[in-house]
Amino acid sequence: MKEKDASVDYKEHQLILYVEKKDGTYGPVKTGSYITKNFIDDFWYKRKKLEHEYLEKVRKGEISPIAYYMVLGELTPSELAARVRLGARKVKKHLTARYFGTITLDQLKRYCDVFNVSPVDMLQVIVTDKKNLKVIEEKMDNPFFTILKISTGKK
Amino acid sequence: MTFQHKMAAHCESGTVAALLNHAGLSISEPLVFGISAGIFFGYFESKKFPFPTFVVRNRPGQIRTGVARRTGVRFKERRFRNPEKGERVLDDLLSGGKPVACQTDFFYMKYLPDHVRVHINVHFITVVEKRGDVYVVSDCYSPNLAELDRESLMKARFAGGSFSPRGFIFHPVSIPRRIDYRTAIWKGIASAAFNMVRLPIPFIGVKGIRLFAKKVVDWPSLARDIDHLSHEIMKINIFLEDQGTGGAGFRFMYATFLREASELLNDPDLLEMSKRIMEIGDRWREISLFAARIGKRRDLGPDRLGELSAMIYERADAEERFFNDLLKLSKSKK
């Protein structure tokens, strides 16, 4: 690839590509990500659609919040089971709304660590029509307790 | 000596090169990649992956072990059952002024853009310093030194699942006075070429590329809907270009390695091979751009996927010729 073909002006996502330089030598150049620059809108469109679709399934009681986060995180039940150190059969049960209620707090915490969410996020979703709301979950030393700070201002 | 942060194409080869540079050995990322036989292809369908996937580099960790074996560099490596002990050992090394490479889950690298962060346990970073509860991190994918809080680094180092890091750390402890680059380079080349054309495994090497070409037309039956299919098809571009490959699924980096090797060994045959793999890479890049475009347009009917498949088959043929010639060349140079 010629150096001029690699050049993408996109500061938000930079990467290194190896190219043929103007003097004929090969070497690295720092450039922007072509796919992020040109297709990130499409990525977020699909992501929001997926979130909405699976949130509806949680709301209707078809799946548990664990299944919701698992799909968004592009994990499989088998991989998730290895990450939370539980049996795959147990994890498959936890993906259903029916068995979600049987989870212990310790197990819930393990799932939360994998998805990087707080235990509260497993039980509720904050929805608002206000655009300038700032929502911060402040973590405590107690892993099962968070303070939710809601204020107006820039996100 | 202050650690020099530098972006690199790939996390493992970049981390190994940066640590060796810091230890006083001047070696480039492509040379590390080539000597360790980094170039590869594998097509995988497994319970561990939510969708079929492919890889374009050797097994995680083999870049470090390959370089060590072929150059004589020695690394001190440790894994931990106990996270507290893993944290203590890392902190002790850092307080002694030693930069340390850590294997981590990429998902917890908060300083990188949200859309690139996925759960994958084979991301390598160099931890340079600890300031209070924050670690200073040199990540090849970050333009500058980054900061990572203690909790995130611990979660990343001790994540479970496939390729679980178990707190794995390494740093170089000895560099040989003289490295026999001729032997190291040719062994790396022979090993890479063997993996690509001689391994009798149907999903590895050139056979893997053909399997990918064959299977990609069946992907619609595995997808939830058209948007999911579009996402997976567009990931072909990400795997080849954006996910730390240096472009064209490491083919451009390998071309740079062969070129550097030809200069180091004064071997014109390697220069010729570097030009060939650069051209092969250009066609791979056409595939990745094509995949991104048809994915965006949701133009994913059988004709279009057939076209994509034909392009991949063509790459398999080109790589079969290339790596067979490279293997012959490596045997003739012994």
Furnish the topology, listing elements before pairings:
The complex is a heterodimer of chains A (155) and B (334).
Chain A: H1 3-6, E1 14-20, E2 26-32, H2 34-59, H3 65-72, H4 77-84, H5 88-94, H6 97-100, H7 105-115, E3 133-139, E4 146-152
Antiparallel strand pairs in A: 1-2, 3-4
Helix pairs in contact in A: 2-3, 4-5
Chain B: H1 11-22, H2 29-35, E1 39-44, E2 53-57, H3 62-71, E3 74-78, H4 83-95, E4 100-104, E5 123-131, E6 134-138, E7 146-149, H5 150-157, E8 169-174, H6 181-197, H7 205-215, H8 219-222, H9 226-242, H10 251-265, H11 268-297, H12 302-332
Antiparallel strand pairs in B: 1-2, 3-8, 4-5, 4-8, 5-6, 6-7
Helix pairs in contact in B: 1-2, 2-10, 3-6, 6-12, 7-12, 9-11, 10-11, 11-12
Compact summary:
The complex is a heterodimer of chains A (155) and B (334). Chain A has 155 residues and is α+β, with helices and mostly antiparallel strands.
Structure description:
The complex is a heterodimer of chains A (155) and B (334). By secondary structure, chain A is α+β, with helices and mostly antiparallel strands. Chain A has 2 domains: 3-32, no CATH class; 40-125, lambda repressor-like DNA-binding domains (434 Repressor (Amino-terminal Domain)), CATH 1.10.260. Chain A is 44% helix and 18% strand. Chain A has helices spanning 3-6, 34-59, 65-72, 77-84, 88-94, 97-100, 105-115, and strands at residues 14-20, 26-32, 133-139, 146-152. Chain A has a two-stranded antiparallel ribbon. In chain A, strands 3-4 form a two-stranded antiparallel ribbon. In chain A, strand 1 (14-20) and strand 2 form a beta hairpin. In chain A, helix 2 runs antiparallel to helix 3 and helix 4 crosses helix 5. Chain A starts with a helix and ends with a strand. The model of chain A has no long low-confidence stretch (mean pLDDT 92). With 334 residues, chain B is of the alpha+beta class. Chain B has 2 domains: 11-174, Cathepsin B, Chain A; 206-332. Chain B is 52% helix and 13% strand. Chain B has a 6-stranded antiparallel beta sheet with strand order 3-8-4-5-6-7, with helices on both faces. A two-stranded antiparallel ribbon of chain B has the order 1-2. In chain B, strand 1 (39-44) and strand 2 form a beta hairpin. In chain B, helix 6 packs antiparallel against helix 12. Chain B is globular, with a radius of gyration of 20 Å. The mean pLDDT of chain B is 96.
